[in-house]
Amino acid sequence: MSTMQTQQRQKTTIFNVFRLLKPHTAITVVVMSVGIVSSGLALLQPLCVNYLLHAIEQSQKLVRPIAVLALLFVAGIVLDGLGSNMANRLAAKIVFDKRSNLITCILGLPVQEYDKRESGDYVSTVISDTNELRSALSSDFFKVAANLLTACGSAVAMLFIDTRLFAVALITSCTSILLMIAASSRLQAYTELVQAKTARLSNAILRSLAGIRTIKAFMATVPETKRVVGTAEEVYRATVKVANKETIIRSIVNCAIQLTLLIVFSFGGAEIAKGDLDISNFISFSMYLTMVVSSLSSFSSSITTAFKALGPLRRIEDIESLRDKSETVSSSNMLSPDGHSSFDTANITLEFKDVCFSYNTADKDDERNTTLQNISFSAVPHQRTVIVGSSGSGKTTLLSLLEAFYRPDSGHILYNNVDSTDLNANDIRKVVSYIEQDAPIFSGSIRDNLTMGTIEASDETCWNALKLVNLDTKVRNLEQELNTQVGEQGHFLSGGERQRLSIARILLHRKPVILLDEPTSSLDSINQQKINALLREIFSEQTVIEVVHRMSTIEPGDQILVMEKGKIVACGTHDELKISSPAYRELLQMPTISQQTTDN
């Protein structure tokens, strides 16, 4: 765990739960005020009962005391219901805001942050941890002030009714409160363990679902099920520990309450028997005592759930502490040295100067762990730059740096002579289009996948893009055409259709820089030739950098970079490299993927 996260954990206390109310101060004051007024009305009820009993003893008219008592009772019920409704709606709004902040933070993180956590951790935090927070923000939580008022008001009234009975009730009540707080504080560690185990379960389920076809193909359903169920059992065991602690807390509180009632009623009965206590005063005292007991019970529930929420709240704050790393908040300088916008035309020149990069941040200085070493080249408009090399040579990593998924450890990447370190990652992506290996197709409609990032695209524009990749006929034959659902990860489409749809998506953008990572790897030879010719025609004026495995797609005018073990070992045209580069000649002799690929 990072030092920053450790510091954040040290700051997470019971008061952090109350700080969640700060952005909603006005409505919180209203909710608590309603609760206080309701408590005030409740405090008047024992006095009215006492007045009613005296009226009965003295044979006075009962209409007024009964009417007042009924009015207090109804008003209290109405206000209590109104306060509970407002409290629940406020809690829902707080959780919604927290989830919105988390989603914004998570989706805005740099790519390298996703490498540090599993996806299930993020999913669990947004859903499970915030649910625990919602449980803590129950209506009882917002009645803390009202409960304290009720308890204090009742205590004052009890003090005036009978000092000795009050002393007995005070001692037992204070004892129960101290025991409850001491026991509740230990829930924090256990609930944090439950949430951590729940995150592991989320990861396990996501892993299984992502590879469900492979699991079934290798008949691994039974062992995979055992593995996930084993993780679920860990959640169960951690939950049982929390349940045991909660049982102890409830038992302590209930025992203290029952003991208080038993002692007070026994002592009060003895006082009545000796004639030292009036029966009407004892009834009023008992009603106030019941209010104290009810307030303590509600207060106990609030404190217990608040302590339970500390574990989830810590996990939420750990992610929120990454907000400063969000790509949406960094500054940018989109001006060239002459003061004019560098990105206002379709012509962007890219340049790498001695760029080094390593995924292993702990050993950046160790050349053995460096993914890219001293990369230098330039790419200009109207020319395709082709990157070739064996698997693991750093080709895709180079494209990831251009897309600002990662930043170089040293060296410079220039966009029209502007250093990438002076640019916001999102500003870079405004001028760069990228088709990654196995470009994902998202759950939703064909239209949703086409118009990602270009929501205003018209139907005509979508159909034109589909026509260019030879998908329009297929889509027009579907019942809902552009609105057809493609299924999770586009499983209702063939591999080739998914790849053509991802290419159609990039055609809608027409950005100045085009990055292609084996864009036709899943296509048959016929569609491969058509798409490659299409891409060359449409992006003839852009700066195009493409990773290829099929050497047959290389043309004489292409600039070719040969990569080997994170280095560019040769650069030139096809004819030049056939003569000067042994590594390139070796690649030419390797079998091409095109002989094995089918569009299915």
From TrEMBL:
- Residue intervals passing through the bilayer: 21-42, 62-83, 141-160, 166-183, 251-270
Q: Any idea where the ABC transmembrane type-1 domain is?
A: 29-305
- Compartments (UniProt record): Cell membrane
Sorted alphabetically, the keyword list is: ATP-binding, Cell membrane, Membrane, Nucleotide-binding, Transmembrane, Transmembrane helix, Transport
Which Pfam families does the UniProt record give? ABC_membrane (PF00664), ABC_tran (PF00005)
User: Which cellular components does GO assign to this protein?
Assistant: plasma membrane
- Identify the InterPro entries for this entry: AAA+_ATPase, ABC1_TM_dom, ABC1_TM_sf, ABC_transporter-like_ATP-bd, ABC_transporter-like_CS, P-loop_NTPase, Type_1_exporter
Q: Which domain of life is it from?
A: Bacteria
Asked whether the keyword Transcription is assigned, the reply is no
Q: Name one GO molecular function term.
A: ABC-type oligopeptide transporter activity
Q: What is this protein called?
A: ABC transporter
